[in-house]
């Protein structure tokens, strides 16, 4: 099955700058004209984000495949927020294409905090329990009418089989660096553990860069661009990308998912790690050693829990 995950292309952030943001604000939201527009210190790949004054941000998709997230978040985040244990981005305004910029864009309330680097987290097992609590709360939100997994979520929330051909190709390319037989067993187990549950909300990109920390604790969850309704297994990937040892076990115990969901989660984590290791090497500044550690952890987890 062909991949629909974006292939490497020239940086879509070219042409998006503070001057463009100032023109868009002046044309569409003149009440905020004159507020300083400054790039954020840590920017994402899918969007460019700018501070607007002290209390707001402006977020602009860099490519057409990221644009559907704008209206999705605008509609759904206010509906999800009251049921979640930590803040999520408050959307203040929905911008339209203009000033030579072709996509919808948004203005949001600024949420303070730093991304979830380990040195910012006071108690990693406790942090893992808090993240698990967020996952459980999100899964408990009313899924009626929610956006079913599909292209807008890059098929997160659907079966990892969507990326079968790509994963096997990456595995062949990385066969000299990983335990190919062990990784293949992880992938086969993920495909075999078909999801049988009721549709549930998932974040879709629950990673350290989308978790905000203040005073050592989870303060907010951001970037719901790949969120949707379907199989929530993809939200367990953080068990291997951020947590290990005691913190991983704390997350596993607190998130309360069945073995099949964990098998599919290992598949999602393997797909992304192999992708970073092969096709995207260096594209996002991802160290090879980190991806190899993730793959080793997945294989050990598969051996331990099957």
Would you write up a description of this structure?
This protein has helices at 18-28, 68-80, 124-139, 164-173, 180-192, 238-241, 245-255, 259-277, 288-305, and strands spanning 37-39, 47-52, 56-61, 91-95, 105-109, 114-115, 200-202, 211-214, 217-221, 228-230. By secondary structure, it is of the alpha+beta class. It folds into two domains: 18-109, Phosphorylase Kinase, domain 1; 114-305, Alpha-Beta Complex (Aminoglycoside 3'-phosphotransferase, Chain: A, domain 2), CATH 3.90.1200. The strands form three sheets. It has a five-stranded antiparallel beta sheet with strand order 1-2-3-5-4, with helices on both faces. Strands 6-8-9 form a three-stranded antiparallel beta sheet, with helices on one face. Helix 4 runs antiparallel to helix 5 (180-192). The longest helix has 19 residues, at 259-277. The radius of gyration is 19 Å and the shape is globular. The two termini are 26 Å apart. The relative contact order is 0.14.
Q: In a nutshell, what does this entry contain?
A:
The chain is of the alpha+beta class and 306 residues long. 38% of the residues lie in helices and 14% in strands.
């Amino acid at each position: 099955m062909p991949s629909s995950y974006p292939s490497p292309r020239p940086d879509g952030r070219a042409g998006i700058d503070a001057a463009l943001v100032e023109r868009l604000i002046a044309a569409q939201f003149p009440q905020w004209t004159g507020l300083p527009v400054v790039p954020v210190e840590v920017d994402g790949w899918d969007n460019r984000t700018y501070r607007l004054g002290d209390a707001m941000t402006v977020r602009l998709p860099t490519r057409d495949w990221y644009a559907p997230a704008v209206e999705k978040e605008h509609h759904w985040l206010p509906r999800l927020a009251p049921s979640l244990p930590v803040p999520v981005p408050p959307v203040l305004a929905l911008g339209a294409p203009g000033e030579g910029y072709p996509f919808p864009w948004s203005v949001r309330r600024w949420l303070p905090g730093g991304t979830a680097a380990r040195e910012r987290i006071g108690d990693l097992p406790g942090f893992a329990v808090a993240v698990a609590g967020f996952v459980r709360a999100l899964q408990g939100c009313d899924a009626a009418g929610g956006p079913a997994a599909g292209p807008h979520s890059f098929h997160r929330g659907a079966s990892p089989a969507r990326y079968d051909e790509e994963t096997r190709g990456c595995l062949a390319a990385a066969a000299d660096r990983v335990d190919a037989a062990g990784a293949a067993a992880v992938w086969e187990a993920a495909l075999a553990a078909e999801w049988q549950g009721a549709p549930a909300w998932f974040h879709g990109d629950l990673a350290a860069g989308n978790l905000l920390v203040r005073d050592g604790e989870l303060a907010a969850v951001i970037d719901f661009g790949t969120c949707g309704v379907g199989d929530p297994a993809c939200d367990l990937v953080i068990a291997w990308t951020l947590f290990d040892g005691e913190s991983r076990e704390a997350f596993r115990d607190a998130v309360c998912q069945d073995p099949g969901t964990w098998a599919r989660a290992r598949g999602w984590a393997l797909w992304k790690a192999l992708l970073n290791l092969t096709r995207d090497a260096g594209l996002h500044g991802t160290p090879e050693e980190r991806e190899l550690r993730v793959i080793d952890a997945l294989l050990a987890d598969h051996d331990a829990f099957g």
